[in-house]
Design a protein that fits this description.
heterodimer; A: alpha+beta; four-stranded antiparallel beta sheet; 49% helix; B: alpha+beta; 11 helices; 47% helix; globular
Chain lengths: 387, 388
Amino acid sequence: MDLSEHEDAEALRDLVRSFLAKEVPPELASRWDREDFIPREMLSRLADLGLCGLTVPEQYGGMGKNVLGMVIAVQELARRSTALAGLFIQNACYGSLNIAESGTEEQKQRLLPDLSRGKLLFAYGLSEPDVGADLASVKTRAERQGDKVVLNGYKRWCTGAQFADYIYMLVRSGAPDARYKNLSLVLVPTGAPGITMKSIGTMGVRGLPTNDVVLEDVSVPFANVVGGEAAWNRGWSLLAGPTLEAEKLGVPALAIGIAEAAIAEAWEYSQQREQFGVRLCGIQSIRHMLADVQTKLAACRSMLSHAAWKVHTGQPSAVETSMAKLYVADTAREIVLTCQQVLGAYGYAHGFAMERYVRDILVMPIWGGSSAIQKNNIANLMHLPRA
Amino acid sequence: MRYRESIDNRHFREEVREWLHANRPKEPRPGSVAEQRAYDRAWQRAKFDAGWAGISWPKEYGGRGLPPVQQLIWCEEYALAHCPAVSDSCWLAQNHAGPTLIARGTEAQRSFHLPRILKGEAAWCQGFSEPNAGSDLASLRTRGVVEEDCLIVSGQKIWTTFAHLADYQELLIRTGAPDSRHRGLTWTICDLRTPGVDIRPIRALDGRYHNCEVFYDNVRIPLSNVVGEINDGWSVAMTTLGFERGPATFGLFCQLAVELEDLISKARATSAEDGEHPQPEDDAIVFRFGVARAQVQAIRALMYQMVSADERGAEPGAEGSLMRLAFAELRQSILRLAMDAHGPFCLNRDESRYWVDEYLDSFAETIQGGTSEIQRSIIGERLLGLPR
């Protein structure tokens, strides 16, 4: 059994770290957070590194689907900036993974080359004001009118929609009470007439605003139905298909990146700060806190690596990805809050990055399928009887 | 110990309840710092004019001279009436600056400051921590040198809550040799309008400005402002911290207990049909509500025990660390539960403003007033007698 990281993976980590060291100093990441804005051109810089090709098949200009590489890229980017890592996820996961898996040949040829060049950005449009965990109850309507689809409804938590090119939107394309049976996925251009957006103020992941999106008679070509004619009213199977497993790894990868950064800051601070005539790192309770977070981090990394390896090698992985999402997101939150405590008041005030890590980590157990939903998934997938 | 309320106290409770329901502010506390100070001051003045300020403070300084249990009844009813948050700009003055002056101040200090505190005319802040003296308070370096009838103070304080709103400061300075630690400190009253004082607010994790840095450049403080003796400031500071960690927590705790009940009521009333709100069908959330309510009851019992000790004349001591630690960790746990019970709606800072702000604010709870690690050390050393 060889659990060591492949040298390609190490090379990828080094590549991203060296890029961040040169191009994204910590002050820049703080500024994106402070101004709640990350420049879209950062995506082109990630594409120049080759990161945007990690989830695009070679025949469409990418480097072939590399889930392990995608997870590493997210982790490393999130160590510096959650917003930057989020931008990458919008391109590589929301965009490339979905189109490569579920798009028609025409959609693949049209979109994947630009996705791999970092020229396209997708946002998700799944949730609605009254629809969260129970996505099968979405109400946004899609009416087919010849070679057009006309959309009406209200989407919520569309992260990054205001600077995305397309919203990957789940819509009701048949009778309202058919639940899973008549849903479709449509690529909605964000500039289409009839779309209005409103930014929602959030406590963390600033720089990557989340949006409410209202659709009033928005008309898009039928060619934008993901998977085309064959997938009309079959959106649920696309949504819950193999892409979901790779995507579920995005949030735990983000969480690990943030946790690693928080530990690094607490580790360093404990060696600089003196109280009672000794450095904090010499006080047993602080040493134990830091030992605890390192142990938890190691467990998180192992869990994520195992799940990513199963997805990467095409094995059934629904349970492992749910477990990784659940455990890593919850544990990373504990890690970051412990690190904040090590910094004392400096962990609560602007100046150190710790307060940003705290604000960013809080959403991880909620984003991408909440911890409660992952527990449901795990129990269901492991065939626990309901009664 | 008897938990049954006496007839007198029951009547007192009814009186408090009636007054609060008739007179509590109808408008929410405003957002801007300047407006907040005016709001806090007006509300404090209203309480004073009606005889509800300083319930257990001596009558000669404007208080009511009533027993501590009636002060506690006030706290409970105040929270139940959903009055403005107790932790406003008048809080520190009433909860540890004023009590410190009552316990350790001179007659002149009491006569001048206590009535102003009760009327809301003077807000106070605490100047204890420094950039390199947080948990290790005895290593502080802000220097005070006696010159004729003044202390000349130079140095820097940090994490001074509400300094930008305050008029006076509990200031702890080094008047002894640099290595004198606990033995060379002095507790003095600093008028923040004195030349040489520079206050710079610090932005916190929640985006608001609760704390400040305060710089002192040859600030002249009259010796008559010293509380206790020169170089005896550590014992006065322990008195202050005894109040801060013990009785000052009572009002905050009572409001937290009501917040929990509000949260439970909201969970009961919320439909889970939208699929996003996990309560109340989510057993895990229900379980946590149950645990939180039990913890509230345990801390309530501890609070009653401390009030009972106070009525017997015991000065607050290290027992305050029990209250402070339990309250701080419970507040974080209840507000995290509030976030989880809100589901994804807790992400929306616009719609869930109150709970989001409270949650972010709660992160400071296990840091300020002595970190949880410091409270545990105090409990271990001073209450349990464990060797260092």
